[in-house]
């Protein structure tokens, strides 16, 4: 009989503990931009699948046709390639990724295709979800599927750029 009383008491205490923890949860609005300073852009940190990522591919190298061949590689990997062309100026890096608040998660995925060797250029005023991929002179090839998966593991989850509030598609 005493054992039943003790078990019943422990069950009641556990229930009270769970209720208190849920009521006092400070992360209940995580990802919803609650408490975000007024006027800060909302950065979509949802990690996208390639089929949901829109990109423009530009050639920042001396090699003619480089953007077209890499755009085909991206299409073969199911990316939505919108524009292909030449960059206004040459780029020495492996690549440059230009994106706005709606493209944060997409740019994070693209970083893995360049094994985190692409320079990131965030533009808070950009309103679309397309990422500009500018190929540089140090670019050799896109990473393999295995390398991309390993790189994504090393990169972790997408993070909102400084001066933005993270929001995930799950809570929109």
What is the topological layout?
Layout: H1 2-23, E1 42-44, E2 54-59, H2 66-76, E3 80-86, E4 95-99, H3 104-113, E5 118-122, E6 131-135, H4 145-155, E7 165-167
Parallel strand pairs: 1-7, 2-3, 2-6, 4-5
Antiparallel strand pairs: 4-6
Helix pairs in contact: 3-4
Quick synopsis:
The chain has 172 residues and is an alpha/beta fold. Helix content is 31%, strand content 20%.
Write a structural description.
This protein has helices at 2-23, 66-76, 104-113, 145-155; strands at residues 42-44, 54-59, 80-86, 95-99, 118-122, 131-135, 165-167. The protein has 172 residues and is of the alpha/beta class. It has one domain. The strands form two sheets. A five-stranded mixed β-sheet has the order 3-2-6-4-5, with helices on one face. A two-stranded parallel ribbon has the order 1-7. Strand 4 (95-99), helix 3 and strand 5 form a beta-alpha-beta unit. Helix 3 (104-113) packs across helix 4. The longest helix is centred in the first third of the chain and has 22 residues, at 2-23.
Give the overall pLDDT as a whole number: 88
Q: Low-confidence stretches at least 5 residues in length (pLDDT < 50)?
A: 28-32
Cα gyration radius (Å): 22 Å
Structural class assignment: alpha/beta
Number of strands: 7
Helical content (DSSP H or I, runs of 4+) = 25-40%
* Percent strand: 15-25%
The rough form would be described as: elongated
Biggest β-sheet strands, sense, barrel: 5 strands, mixed
Instruction: Supply the number of structural domains.
Output: 1
């Amino acid at each position: 009989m005493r054992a039943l009383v003790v078990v019943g008491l422990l069950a009641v205490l556990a229930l009270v503990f769970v209720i208190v923890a849920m009521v006092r949860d400070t992360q209940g609005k995580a990802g919803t931009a609650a408490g975000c300073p007024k006027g800060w852009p909302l950065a979509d940190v949802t990690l996208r699948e390639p089929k949901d990522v829109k990109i423009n591919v530009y050639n920042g190298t001396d090699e003619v046709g480089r953007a077209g061949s890499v755009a085909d590689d991206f299409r073969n990997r199911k990316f939505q390639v919108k524009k292909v062309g030449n960059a206004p100026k040459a780029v020495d890096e492996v690549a440059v990724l230009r994106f706005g608040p709606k493209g944060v998660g997409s740019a994070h995925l693209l970083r893995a295709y360049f094994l985190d060797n692409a320079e990131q250029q965030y533009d808070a005023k950009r309103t679309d979800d397309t990422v500009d991929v500018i190929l540089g002179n140090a670019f050799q090839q896109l990473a393999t599927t295995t390398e991309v998966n390993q790189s994504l593991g090393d990169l972790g989850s997408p993070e909102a750029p400084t001066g933005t509030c993270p929001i995930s598609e799950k809570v929109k």
